[in-house]
Amino acid sequence: GGIIGIFSLISVLSKLPIFSNPSDEVVMYFKYGVYSLLTAFAIVLSIAIASGSSAQTLSKEFPLQFRLAAQFRTPLLMFIVVPLSYIRAVHLSICDWYRYNFAAGPKSTHEERVQYVVDQVKKWNKNGRKNIMRTARPNWASMSTKLSSNKGDSSKIKTHELTHILEVDEKNMTIRAEPSVTMGQITHHLVPKGYALQIQVEMESITIGGVSMGFGMETNSHLIGFFQESVVAFEIVTSTGDVVNVTKESDPELFYALPWSCGTVGFLVSVTVRISKIKPYVHVRYLPTYSAEELGRKMKELAESPNAPYFLEATIYTKDRAVIQMGEYADAPQSSADRAKINGINWWFKPFYYKWVETFLEKGEADEFIPLMDYYHRFTRSIFWELEDMIPFSNHWLYRTLWGWMGAPEVSLLKLFQGPVIRKASVYAHVVQESIMPIRYLEEGIGRFDEWYGVYPLLVFPLRVYDRGEKSGFLHPRKENLIKGKDYGIWCDLGAYGAPRMVKEGKVWDAKKNIREMEHWTRDIGGWQAYYTDLFCTRKEFRQMFDHTLVDKCRKRFKADDAFPEIYDKIKPEAGIVDLAEEEAAEKNQKK
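Now predict its structure.
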């Protein structure tokens, strides 16, 4: 692509008047310029290919196609995926700007867009409800790890035009949006008005529908809970084509059944969520810890404190070393000392945020002021810390300066450039797993993650989980994990993303064994697995981890059993990723 671009430039330049009768000097400088460009490109390409030399340490057990892809992924990402991601982002931004300022699209009102969905569902009913319904959105476009479509011969309902922010209600402090609106669109719409979502999820490409009907969390979830706690109302289209507005007052069972249901009760067509007032900065304090025990103890104290910081998270760099980050909304610093602490962490030329945080292990406790938008999307540039696994020198100042302005590769495009062979092999060479555990088990969890994965950094988000009895929904917390005298407890999400230690050492890492051990342990202590990842559990084990009572009841009420798949069938890995035949057979024999 780069070479074609260079020769295209040469073709254009050669037609300029200065080259119609060029002097020897002009020709000489032109040739030097072309040779310099080609040489620079060749050097960059060579470095990019050489950076994949770590692929040579991969076990020969991995398919040749996967090892070749690992060898050449850096230039593929640099010269194709990153530019395409940038172009796509610019295109979407222009489309958003045009739509909000000049046009609303082919179906100009929300009612018309909803009616389009209703018409498709009613047509499906008229044709005899012959197969289940799914949205027409391709799997590669979602934020899950799945690639191949598991939609098969299902009836695919088109919902792609549900991409509009409908209303910002400053009186009631809510925003109403259609499900395909992204977190990036929302921050760019709300922040200039002085507002943000009550739970403002980090990754810009995540949709509000995904975090409402699935799950979402952020660094203030220890005070508020999962994203679902900020939802005021759902608007869904049921399997019969009825449009139902759902609040906890109008239908509490359905309201608490919809989060985590993944659209298995109906199609979400809009959601209303709470917003909050903001300030232009976040005052962040950094507190290093030097043992898993110290981290677990301090995170529990901070998260459960009546004076807990508004934002709270931790990044773990080794089994014993971590940095706790505590933040509060702040006005613009006034003193010269405080102004000197302003750090625009998301400038493309700056080190990745997690690398900057790591420096406080040596510096000790410190604080700074981060512009709000930078804080909200602090891990977007580095895809948390995944980008360095894909482009090893992506945090080098030269790469950040020359390529960083284009941002990170879009997750959906990363998936699109995988094939089935690479997708399957990557499950056994790369970890994307999260265990949501009671916070008192954090110390033990760190040790177990080190044993199972050996991946660093690790992410820690503390979370408040409510016990609402029969209306607790998919997550039914155990009484022993609640704070004494409260109707909630604190859990924490421990996330591992990257290549396992054994894979980096050229050994074979048993993904099935280790992930199933994590699932069993998480289930045994009263926790839950983040199900956008690859699950290695059986249907029975999944139902043991998550309480299906309420969602099953609502699926029956709204005639969804033959209209939508079960949650497990939507989120389980594609065929061929993991073989659970032995475990399922054992369950059948046990039942007999």
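The longest strand covers residues 267-277.
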